[in-house]
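[SOLVED] Need 3D model of a two-part complex

Original post:
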Amino acid sequence: MKKTEIKIYKEILKAEGEWAAKTRESLRKHNILMLNLIGSPGCGKTALLEALLPLLLKKLRCAVLEGDVETARDAERLKDLGIPVSQIITQGTCHLGAQIVNKAVQELPLADLDLIFVENVGNLVCPTEFDIGEAAKLAVLSVTEGEDKPLKYPLLFRKAGAAVLTKIDLLPHLPFDRVKCLEFISQVNGRLPVFEISALKEQGTLTLADWISAFEIG
Amino acid sequence: MKKTEIKIYKEILKAEGEWAAKTRESLRKHNILMLNLIGSPGCGKTALLEALLPLLLKKLRCAVLEGDVETARDAERLKDLGIPVSQIITQGTCHLGAQIVNKAVQELPLADLDLIFVENVGNLVCPTEFDIGEAAKLAVLSVTEGEDKPLKYPLLFRKAGAAVLTKIDLLPHLPFDRVKCLEFISQVNGRLPVFEISALKEQGTLTLADWISAFEIG
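Solution:
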């Protein structure tokens, strides 16, 4: 990048950082936990929410912000849960920005919430680089993607507060080396808790819901 | 984006376009077909190459450019084929740029090649926006990602020369609606040929190899 480009990129990141700080402040004031789900297209982020929310709603008041390049299909999948769900359409942009997330957060009934899930745009690279004011990023990886992804896309696993391995019901049908995958995650981030989940078969969802319920906002 | 940002973005795209044109000119001169594989992380792009190349090498002289954020793992998977394979590591960048691809293409033995595969960075969004001098983009979508992806990430399916549905051996174990997926692809791009493949079980690979062999550079 040329000097001017670097300067403008830094300015964008600085402005984004300021919006993220504003969001974080609002969430602290209302004691709301915000989790930012990041993973490839089709890794099962929405299915994970469909499985987790009924469990979490027994104890916590939840809302969801859905981020997508196009369509409101993911928000529609969650509408029967009877909770606030907003769809942010990025119109081609590959990640959620901090300013638009701030706007969407401010429009939620913050006084009546304990937990906000943000489902970022399906993308293992770009959303990782942008702080949107979340308490933690959750790295979502489906076992169908192969055990080497933590090494090939290490930044997300380095920055995440937890990793979620999804679609484990498919393991008998895949050439996926589970032990190697856990080793690779550990190589990139030795302290990262890993949850192994099948949203369809409701395996492992209770353990992850308990971890989220007990999460202490830092 | 502010005015200055838009100006610089346009400048970057213009410079990229010039590099893509240079690459295209070199490839035309040597009558080489270059195909740009785009799909999510773990959708099976490298496995597709592992299955296709032994078939294509019977008729065509091939090379591969591997694009990754980090590691040379994909290039290593292909090294036993005895063909030129270069790994481009983008160091965090979410797509292959036209300039670095031009450099990598120029370093290949162009007089001895008929076909170059570029495996782009695993990402369904960003690589789509950048012309790297290819004759056609191949949209690679694994059936594990769900049938709605052509609607959620339409730009790639609009721009592609063909779509490849991978991992079809997993269909009996997935809640994937094949007919709907084909309908969604057709809604986005009614003229797009679709190839249904299992690289592991070598299903459909011969048909795709024939299509590639018969491809007329426009």
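Edit: The interface with chain B takes residues 4-5, 8, 12, 40-43, 68-71, 73, 92, 94, 121-126, 129, 142, 144-146, 148-149, 151-155, 167, 169-170, 173-175, 200 of chain A (CB under 8 Å).
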